[in-house]
Amino acid sequence: MIRRLRARQRPLSCQAVGRLLQAYLDAEVPDTAALLVADHLDDCRRCGLEAETYRALVASLARLSPPDDPERLERLRSFADELVTAA
Ligand SMILES: [Zn+2]
């Protein structure tokens, strides 16, 4: 793992990134937090892979679900989220 010096903010831990990941990928976190998560995903292969997996899963679920059925999509997203947090 590459460690960079960051003067402005402490880097996030993998655990913190895991908690923010779903909201981050859904563009629901503030810009400052999103930047920290993005930095971490660049540096940390494990979390980067997790993000990729989640992103691909949500994308394929979105394709499978009718766009006018947000409840079904929400259930599938919860399922995807469980898979990510269980990893
Ligand atoms: Zn990490």
Describe what this molecule looks like in 3D.
- It is built from 4 helices and no strands.
- The chain is mostly helical and 87 residues long.
- The chain has one domain (14-86).
- Helix 1 packs across helix 2, helix 1 packs parallel to helix 3 (45-64) and helix 2 crosses helix 3 (45-64).
- The longest helix has 20 residues, at 45-64.
- The model has no long low-confidence stretch (mean pLDDT 83).
- The structure holds zinc ion.
- Zinc ion (ZN) binds at residues 14, 17, 40, 44, 46-47.
- Zinc ion binds at residues 14, 17, 40, 44, 46-47.
Sum up the structure in keywords.
87 residues, mainly alpha, 71% helix, 0% strand, elongated, binds zinc ion
Layout of SSEs?
Layout: H1 14-25, H2 31-43, H3 45-64, H4 70-86
The chain binds zinc ion (ZN).
The site of zinc ion (ZN) has 6 residues, from helix 1 and helix 3.
Record field, number of beta strands = 0
Mean pLDDT figure: 83
What ranges have pLDDT less than 50 throughout 5 or more consecutive residues?
none
Which class best fits the helix and strand makeup? mainly alpha
Number of helices: 4
Query: How do the SSEs run, as a string of H and E?
Result: HHHH
User: What is the strand content?
Assistant: under 5%
Shape: elongated
Largest beta-sheet characterization: none
User: How many domains in all?
Assistant: 1
Bound molecules: zinc ion
Tell me the helix content: over 70%
Rg (CA only): 14 Å
Q: How far is the first residue's CA from the last residue's CA?
A: 19 Å
